[in-house]
Design goal:
heterodimer, A: four-stranded antiparallel β-sheet, B: alpha+beta, seven-stranded mixed β-sheet, 9 strands, 16% strand, binds flavin-adenine dinucleotide
């Protein structure tokens, strides 16, 4: 047992810190700090700066741009990025489709897609969920029927995050309706500019547009866009979802947001006094700091012990608790803003600080965190079933 | 002891419920209304006026109906049930309540009569960018004497401040906080309106040597009036929240019955039904506390402590029920097209108007040494 980082890891941390605080466009970091939405261009610029330095996709195989980092180093990379207000590389590219293509795709698919995916020259969308297939993903109905050299795809996907920017979408489609539902699913890559693809916006309760419906009407998809084997898509999806869960506990950004909230509180009291002198506020912040510490230590325990690179079963703990704490901090911000939280729509000339204005839209928006990526109920089920052996 | 409505009160409830059910038959209708200025329905407001709802708590000689806190509670709850955007609590209970409590007989007759008829919608301009939930004004100052005063400073956010036909403004005077009437066309008045996250409207209101008329006795400290009226509005907000929480819970239980995943309705999963049961527990405890606060008002006592207790309970219940309502719906709960998110938004807005749970808990903490047990009965 040992608490300190090795000299090598400490130097690594320093290197990451320097990179993220000097090499990522300042406007990107300012936008994250202001808790505002990033534009597509900003996200692309940020990823490309990382990719130029060779650290955009460290979790990939080395031959496709990955790094032979230890899980601890990967963790440090992720934490330092968030602490520096740098958005993590687009998860659809970096943690989802990239690793799947690298692990299961043909050589041709790898060469065609991986470099562009790492550099965000292709913006990927995730087309898994459907109106009747949410938590029960395997009941999806979008079909792909083989027709000569193509698949003919029909159906509807929903909740497609940032699909309005998407160049390509990776989908789960039903290729064999006659077998058990998990067995007839394939993993297909679809060019979103193909005829028959329609993207329609869904407005969320914070007023923003980040999710979409995607419709497929007789869309022709070349058969070579199939990843791996036909009807094996469920296995690849499980592999992908396991990866999705690992990076999802945003410890660094929650830590940073909480410290930002603390700073905000210093002058948010009546007449510009400090709310930190309010024992209830102080107690809640101290409690949250402690909870986040426990989460971070758990994340460290997980990475320190997962040398074989497989997701640790406790990654569900990270997703569950990580999203709860992320939500608790967005809620705290609304409370700190107090009556000013109502001024969400204020424009120029308002006397309300910017952080108070974005507080409630952020709070409402982050209710999503416990729903997507395997809802918190699903995580509890994994903990109860897989870890505790409680299967009813 | 009686927590039940009498037959007249039930008739009022049914009438308001009927009207609002028609006006806001779906959450789409509400959205269409809140998207356009002024953010609520002029026609619905007029119908509420015709029903006598807008003059409900005011004396008959002031043009009102002479009803009491129980009737206000009934209306507020119906407003909450469909989260009608009409500013009943803001304009009638709060702004109108201040006029009723502090105004001269002429002011009362003129303002409350027009409010009751639906022709004048007042707003209370009180919150300042740095005042938090304080009841004293600090940033807007008043100077003058007799009927001629001027105001300087900024109020923000002022709910309904851009559309208001009359602003009731709290301002610093010698020896306390005074209340003033400001007309929309007053010199040196600027109003910049904007939407709020719950579909409402707020405004930045600036005063630069703006002429104002004292509400009631010139130069009088109105701190007690403000405290008592704000308490009434806090309790009314409690009822509005009860209505909203009840709908959010009902919508959620309906969804658990109909939404199918894994080939079965969600209500097959006990983990979810138990959470709906917990939401119900929160709702009932809030209902008891809020109703009790209205009974304290009816009793004519000092309701500020009861209001704080109600607001604290509602703050906790509103967060619990609002957050769970979204979660148990999954993705659909996050969308602007579906209703539960709007209920959660409205509950969040009410929570942070006139003091959130933590603010009221702090107030209760400061009186902890004054009693050995809390006794709800007088
Ligand atoms: C903002 C946002 C972005 C998203 N982005 C994407 C995307 O880019 N691509 C994509 O494919 N999908 C995306 N999703 C979809 C997301 O993965 C689903 O919303 C999620 O899987 C839940 O499915 P559902 O919404 O259909 O809810 P449902 O499955 O209907 O669940 C409703 C509620 O019931 C619970 N529940 C369901 N089954 C059980 C059970 N057996 N036991 C206990 N509780 C249960 C759920 O946890 C939830 O609380 C996104 C969702 C949101 C909200």
């Amino acid at each position: 047992m040992k608490l300190q980082l090795s000299d090598e890891d400490a130097a690594f941390r320093e290197e990451m810190h320097t990179f993220f605080t000097t090499q990522i466009p300042q406007d990107v970091r300012d936008t994250v700090a202001a808790r505002r939405e990033l534009s597509k261009e900003q996200i692309v610029a940020s990823v490309q700066a990382m990719n130029a330095a060779g650290i955009a996709v460290p979790n990939w195989p080395v031959e496709w741009g990955g790094k032979d980092w230890t899980p601890l180093q990967r963790h440090i990379w992720h934490e330092e990025m968030q602490l520096a207000n740098v958005p993590p590389p687009l998860p659809f590219n970096a943690s989802m489709v990239g690793p799947v293509i690298a692990a299961f795709g043909s050589q041709e698919l790898k060469e065609r897609f991986l470099p562009k995916t790492a550099n965000l020259d292709i913006w990927w969308s995730q087309g898994f969920s459907e109106p009747d297939a949410g938590s029960d993903l395997a009941s999806l109905r979008t079909t792909a029927v083989r027709d000569g050299d193509d698949y003919l795809v029909n159906g509807q996907k929903t909740w497609t995050t940032l699909g309005q920017y998407g160049d390509w979408i990776f989908t789960l489609v039903r290729t064999d309706p006659s077998v058990k539902k998990q067995a007839g699913i394939s993993f297909l890559l679809i060019d979103m500019s193909s005829p028959g693809v329609t993207v329609r916006p869904i407005e969320l309760i914070d007023g923003g547009h980040e999710v979409n419906e995607v419709w497929f009407e007789n869309v022709r998809v070349p058969a070579e866009n199939l990843v791996g084997e036909e009807n094996k898509g469920w296995d690849y999806a499980k592999f992908l979802l396991g990866n999705e869960r690992v990076g999802v506990a945003p410890v660094g950004s929650t830590k940073r947001t909480l410290s930002q909230a603390k700073e905000f509180a210093r002058t948010a009291g009546p007449g510009g006094t400090s709310l930190l002198e309010d024992p209830l506020v102080a107690a809640q912040i101290a409690d949250l700091e402690n909870e986040i510490l426990a989460l971070e230590l758990t994340a460290l325990r997980v990475v320190a012990n997962s040398a074989d690179g497989k997701p640790h079963p406790a990654s569900s703990v990270l997703k569950l608790r990580g999203t709860e704490l992320q939500q608790a901090v967005t809620e705290l911000f609304v409370d700190l803003a107090g009556p000013l939280a109502l001024a969400s729509g204020a424009g120029d000339g308002s006397d309300v600080p910017d952080l108070a204005r974005v507080a409630t839209p952020n709070y409402l928006n982050f209710r999503k965190a416990s729903i997507y990526g395997g809802s918190n109920e699903v995580q509890r089920q994994i903990i109860a079933g897989t870890i505790l052996g409680l299967r009813g | 002891m009686d927590f039940q409505l009498d037959s007249e009160q039930e008739a009022l409830r049914d009438a308001v419920r009927g009207l609002l059910a028609k006006a806001y038959d779906t959450s789409e209708t509400r959205r269409a209304v809140t998207k356009q200025e002024p953010g609520w329905g002029d026609k619905t407001w007029q119908q509420l006026a015709e029903m006598g709802v807008l003059g409900l708590p005011f004396a008959e000689e002031d043009g009102g109906m002479g009803a009491g806190p129980a009737e206000v509670a009934i209306v507020a709850e119906e407003i909450g049930r469909v989260i009608a955007p009409e500013p009943f609590v803001e304009a009638v209970v709060l702004a109108g309540g201040l006029v009723a409590a502090a105004g001269t007989p002429e002011q009362r007759g003129e303002i409350l009569g027009a409010l009751a008829e639906g022709t004048l919608v007042p707003a209370f301009a009180h919150t300042e960018p740095a005042s938090r939930y304080e009841l004293a004004a600090t940033g807007v100052t008043a100077s003058g004497s007799g009927d001629a005063w001027t105001l300087n400073g900024v109020k923000e956010p002022v709910l309904g401040g851009a559309r208001a036909d009359l602003l009731i403004v709290s301002a610093v005077i010698d020896g306390g906080t005074g209340l003033f009437l400001v007309k929309p066309d007053a010199d040196g008045l600027t109003r910049t309106g904007y939407p709020t996250f719950d579909g409402g409207r707020a405004a930045h209101v600036g005063f630069a040597n703006t002429p104002a008329t004292p509400l009631g006795e010139p130069g009088a400290d109105q701190s007690d009036v403000i405290a008592a009226t704000v308490a009434r509005a806090q309790i009314a907000y409690g009822h509005e929240s009860l209505g909203a929480m009840e709908t959010a819970l009902r919508t959620t239980t309906e969804y658990l019955k109909t939404r199918k995943q894994f080939g079965v309705p969600l209500m097959t999963f006990q983990a979810l039904t138990f959470r709906a049961a917990d939401m119900y527990v929160s709702l009932e405890l809030a209902r008891s506390t809020v109703t009790w606060a209205t009974l304290v008002l009816l009793d004519g006592g000092d309701a500020t402590e009861a209001a704080s207790r109600a607001k604290l309970q509602v703050s906790k219940a509103g967060r619990h029920i609002g957050q769970e309502a979204i979660q148990l719906h999954g993705g659909i709960g996050m969308t602007a097209e579906y209703s539960v998110g709007h209920y959660t938004s409205r509950l969040t807005a009410i929570d942070h108007a006139l003091g959130d749970g933590r603010h009221h808990l702090n107030r209760l903490v400061s009186t902890l040494g004054d009693h050995t047990v809390v006794d709800p009965l007088p």
